[in-house]
Every structure is written in structure tokens, then in C-alpha cells.
Amino acid sequence: MWFFFQFIAVLILAETLANPRDDNKGRLTNLNSTTIFRSKECSYKYIKDLGKGFTSIVVEAEVIGHPDVHKAIKIIDNRKDCIEFAEQEIEALSALAPHSSEHFIIKMDDSFNYNGHECFALEKLDQSLDDLLKCKNVKLSFEEKSRFAYQLCVAGKFIHDERIVHNDIKLDNVMLARGNSEVRLSDFGIAESFRLSAKKDAKLKDAKLKDAELKDAELEDAKKRDVVTIGSTILKIFDYSAPFIDWDSSDQDDFNVSLKAIHKMGPKYEDLHDFLEKMMKFKPRERMTLDKALEHPFLKKIHHENQFLQFLEKERKEIDD
Q1: What is the DSSP string of 170-217?
Q2: Are 250 and 235 in contact, with CB atoms under 8 Å apart?
Q3: Which CATH class is domain 25-123?
Q4: How far is it, in rounded angstroms, from Cα 173 to Cα 237?
Q5: Helix or strand (DSSP H, E) at 70
Q6: Which of 110, 161, 203, 263 has the fewest Cβ atoms nearer than 10 Å?
Q7: Rounded distance, CA 54 to CA 39, Å?
């Protein structure tokens, strides 16, 4: 009888160890092929780990009932500071979701809680822009690079119009979609939302109006941080060896050397040189806005072509309806 109870205890221990559990830092571990994530919308079956960050892990999961549909599930560490970041990211992605793909933003399809962990399901994308650019076998044309630059500016303008600031735009956080022809701005883990503070109802007291106005000023300053990192990301799209300029850890010499390198590429790059110079001014208030960036000669042709294609698509849908 004693051996029977020992055997049962061993089985229970083995099953416990085989189940997902938190490590001493609140990170979910021991995920396996029997792990099922459930939300109000649907269920997902764990397939494999995709990556790890400071506050989360990302796994690939199959949508149960749709074996050809796979999602990237971001699982936030079960720690107070991480949960706060997760709430900000979910708030930002939820606000952007209805029009995310058309504005080159990664799409969040679902959010749920799994064993105390905040989780959200994203469209699964396999490669970042950084992965593509450092691949020696891939040679992008000037036009292809310019289109990526345009899409990145559209994404930035869209989130800014929605009163959201990304705060971490770089090649690693720009994913590729549709056969590597489009970008998707991703990883909103340290994004800031200014949406709630934007409300200026007539019933608000003076103090709240002043607070809203202060938030407006903070938003405008925060946008400028994104502008310079978008500019630096575009710089690296055209010159991968260039240092990443964010002005917090960079100096004027690095920037000037990088601009000179662009200028030496020839007359075709003159508009790009001027564009980057205006995007990446050292003084934030002197930097070009993303509205103006889309009308700059470097991007203007692509921008107007895209607007015309959107107009034709809208007309086509109206006729079909």
C-alpha cells in the first residue's frame, strides 16, 4: 500500500512539473503541446516559443478549429511593473486595431488572462526589417527602401493622430508582412497614450482644462521623440552601417558623418538627405512633423500615388455595395 501511495505521489509531482508554471521572476515556463490558451473569442494551442523580452515571452499558437491560422501570443510576466506596461500596450493596440493594417501597424486580435498572466494575440509575422537588411543575399532598390520609409511615416502619423506615442521605434520593432512588401510597426510595450486626457468637455473645471492643455503640450513633445527615431530607422534602411541616432546617447558628429555618407551616394539621394536633416534636428521643436514628412519631395510622389490607390479602392467598394 505504501508503494502505491508513493507511486501516486510521483505521478502527481510529474504532472505538476509538466504543467506551465511561473519561475521566481513571474515568467511563465514549461509550456508544452498540451497547453491551451482560452479567451472569450477562441482557444489557442501552444506550438513553440518565438522569443523573449524584458517583460514577456512570445509564443506561436494555433487557433483551435482553424489549423492553418497561427497567432503570436505575447505573455506578460506576472509582476506588477510588467502588468502596468501590458495594460498600456493593450490600450494602445485596442485603439489602433480597427484600422491597423491599412496604416502599417501590427494587429491585435484578442486579449485574455492565462493563469494570472496578461496575454494578447497578434498577427504572426516571421521577420523584422532588421533581419531583412542584414541578410547579405537581399539587395533592396532605392524605390523599395523609399516605400518602407513612407510606410513607417504613415504608421507614425496614424498613432500620433490617435494620440499615442510609441517611444521605441527601431528596426527590430518593424516587422514585415505581405511577402516582405509592407512593414508593421510593432512592440508597443512602452507606448504612451494621451487619449483620455484629450477630452475637453465644456463641463470640465478650469483645473482639468489646464491639465488637458498640459497633456496636449506633453503629447507634442513626445511626438518629436518618435520623429527622430523614425528618421534614424530610415537612415539605417538606406545605410545599415549608420549608428542609431536618438540624441540621448548620440552626438552631432555621428549624425553629420551619416548625413555625409548619404550625400555621397549621388544626386538621387539629395531629397533623402534634406528629409533626414529635417526629421532629425537636434532641437525637438525644429523637427519636421510627420504630416510635413509625407509631403516632403522625398515621399510626396509615393504618398500621392497611395492616396489615389486608396481613392480607387474606396470607389470600388462603394460600387460593389
Answers
A1: SGGGEEEETTTTEEEE---TT-EE-SGGG---TTS-HHHHHHHHHHHH
A2: no
A3: alpha beta
A4: 13
A5: strand 66-76
A6: 203
A7: 24
Q: What is the pTM of this model?
A: 0.85
Cell of 80: 506588477
Determine contact, residues 100/148, Cβ cutoff 8 Å.
no
Residue-range domain boundaries for the chain? 25-123, 129-311
| Selection from 109, 97, 136, 91 nearest residue 44 by Cα | 109
Region 242-251 average pLDDT: 77
Q: Tell me, what's the pLDDT at 5? A: 44
CA distance 111 to 170: 25
- Picking from 98, 95, 120, the residue whose alpha carbon sits closest to that of residue 41 is 120
CA–CA separation, 321 and 318 (whole Å): 5
Tell me which residue has cell 523580452. Answer: 53
Residue 138 contacts residue 197 (beta carbons within 8 Å): no
Please state, in angstroms and rounded to a whole number, the distance separating the CA atoms of residues 259 and 249: 18
Task: From 284, 118, 96, select the one nearest 193 (Cα to Cα).
Answer: 96
Q: To 10 degrees, the CA torsion angle through 38, 33, 93, 144?
A: -150
User: Which residue from 45, 49, 5 is spatially nearest to 30, judged by alpha carbons?
Assistant: 49
CATH 3.40.50.410 correct for 129-311: no
Cell of 156: 507614425
The per-residue pLDDT for range 69-119, each reduced to its tens digit, is 999 999 999 998 898 888 889 999 999 999 999 999 999 999 999 999 999
Helices 142-161 and 80-96 cross at an angle (nearest 10°) of: 100
pLDDT digits (tens, 9 = 90+) for 50-83: 998 889 999 999 999 999 999 999 999 999 889 8
Identify residue 282 by its one-letter amino acid code.
F
Cell of 284: 525637438
